[in-house]
């Protein structure tokens, strides 16, 4: 199983069946899924099926993780790594309830996840893939120190791929930690 990760404000833990309703609600928001290529879940049973068959933790010791407010336990969204077999890359991803946008949570949770990927798992490289129009997500990847690699098309969108290597992360993370999350 994957270990819990902590930041000053957040708890990141493995996705569980307890998250099904929150995941359904989050993905029902058209603004949240706008740039994802997902249409949301049709019903709660689809979410339960997704969670029940999610195999990233066992196969790769990584995966998307539920983000909770550490002080209240309130569901915020998810963030984590996912091995993309079709391109043989580990991808950083995040999705938050709209009310948490613009509060630095994507950046803060991503720092914990990148630390886990590079420092605990010993990954050499992590990518971030984003629709070009999703300026907020592009800015998060850049803030994390990811560098532009290529353009591609997916889900009918023009997309960009950014990357980060372990040495790049170690050099960048100290500067990032010193800054306030905004």
Describe, in plain words, how this protein is organized in 3D.
The chain is an alpha+beta fold. Helices cover 36% and strands 30% of the residues. The chain has 7 helices and 8 strands. It has helices spanning 20-27, 30-33, 44-53, 56-60, 105-120, 135-143, 166-178; strands at residues 5-6, 10-14, 64-69, 75-84, 89-96, 125-131, 147-154, 157-165. A 5-stranded antiparallel sheet has the order 1-2-3-4-5, sandwiched between helices. The protein has a 3-stranded antiparallel sheet with strand order 6-8-7. Helix 1 (20-27) crosses helix 3 (44-53) and helix 5 runs antiparallel to helix 7. The longest helix is centred in the middle third of the chain and has 16 residues, at 105-120.
Gyration radius (Cα, Å) is 15 Å
Could you report the average pLDDT, rounded to the nearest whole number?
94
How many H/I helical runs? 7
- The CATH architecture would be 3-Layer(aba) Sandwich
- Topology, number of strands: 8
Note poorly predicted spans. none
* Structural class by secondary-structure content: alpha+beta
β-sheet strand percentage: 25-35%
| Topology order in helix (H) and strand (E) letters | EEHHHHEEEHEHEEH
CATH topology group: Aminopeptidase
* Helix-residue proportion: 25-40%
CATH H level, superfamily name = Gcn5-related N-acetyltransferase (GNAT)
Biggest β-sheet strands, sense, barrel: 5 strands, antiparallel
The CA-CA distance between the termini, in Å, is 31 Å
What order do the strands of the largest sheet run in, or round the barrel if closed? 1-2-3-4-5
Shape: globular
Domain count, please report it. 1
The CATH top-level class label: Alpha Beta
């Amino acid at each position: 199983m994957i270990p819990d990760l902590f930041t000053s404000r957040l708890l990141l833990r493995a996705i569980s069946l307890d998250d099904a309703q929150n995941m359904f609600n989050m993905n029902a928001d058209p603004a949240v899924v706008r740039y994802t290529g997902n249409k949301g879940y049709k019903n709660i049973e689809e979410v339960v099926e997704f969670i029940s068959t999610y195999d990233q933790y066992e196969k790769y010791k990584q995966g998307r993780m539920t983000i909770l407010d550490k002080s209240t336990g309130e569901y915020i969204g998810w963030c984590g790594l996912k091995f993309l077999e079709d391109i043989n890359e580990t991808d950083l991803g995040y999705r938050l309830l709209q009310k948490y946008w613009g509060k630095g949570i994507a950046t803060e949770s991503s720092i914990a996840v990148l630390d886990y990927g590079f420092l605990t798992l010993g990954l050499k490289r992590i990518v971030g893939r984003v629709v070009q129009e999703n300026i907020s997500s592009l800015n998060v990847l850049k803030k994390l120190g990811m560098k532009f690699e290529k353009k591609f098309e997916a889900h009918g969108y023009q997309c960009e791929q950014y990357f980060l290597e372990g040495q790049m992360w170690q050099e960048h993370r100290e500067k990032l930690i010193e800054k306030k999350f905004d």
